[in-house]
Amino acid sequence: MRILDIVLPAEPGSATRRFFVASALWLAAGVTFGFLGALEMLAPDLLPHWAELSFGRVRPTHINLVVFGFLLNAYFGGLLHVVPTVCRTELYAERFANFGVWFYNLVVAGMLFTLPHGITQGREYAEAAWILDIGVLISLAALAIIVFGTIARRKEQLLYVSVWYIAAGLLWSFFVYAVGNVVWAGPIGSWQGI
Q1: Tens digits of residue pLDDT in 138-148
Q2: CA dist., res. 13 & res. 85, Å (int)
């Protein structure tokens, strides 16, 4: 078996499963950081006095791992299952979708590294560094390509409302995320806040 077939399989449903597995793993990491934040609030002298374990760094890490790691991985896995199922066709570009799993989770791992180390934009719920914001946008664009490609190849003539919502949600999320994170300001301008 070739390494490409292991890392980026073309097997139907493989990207969906990988997104769900990643979601479960990030849930465990997010809950761990949530527990550390609760410990910091309950017994501030219990944990070592490292900057990485301070509440101001643990809380944004917890929030971002739960939102971007757990919830969005589950959402992406769900939409990659629902769209081909209701369109009665195989997912467009399964290997590309598997690449998307790896790329997106690398972005989330970047959040896991940068936020505890204080590399942040300092805006609540928009703390991720600018380059990670670009990674999220690339991931959303790639998923939109996969979803719209699947819709274009559908065998089902009726386009279900759920597919309309998924497709529109990906496009809407792309633009809302870009505006909310002021990505056009670049790595320097985005540190200043709004």
Answers
A1: 999 999 999 99
A2: 10
* 194 band by pLDDT with thresholds 50, 70 and 90: very low
The rounded distance, in Å, linking the Cα atoms of 130 and 135 is 9
Residues of 181-194 as b/e, b for ≥16 C-beta within 10 angstroms?
bbbeeeeeebeeee
Decide: 94 and 14 in contact? Cβ < 8 Å.
yes
For 13-46, the pLDDT digits (tens) are 999 999 999 999 999 999 999 999 999 888 888 8
Q: To the nearest 10°, the Cα dihedral for 113, 78, 103, 127?
A: -40
What distance in Å separates the CA atoms of residue 105 and residue 69, rounded to the nearest whole number?
A: 7
End-to-end CA separation in angstroms for the chain: 51
How far is 156 from 117, CA to CA, in rounded Å? 49
- Assign residue 156 a region (left: φ > 0; alpha: ψ between -120 and 50; beta: otherwise): beta
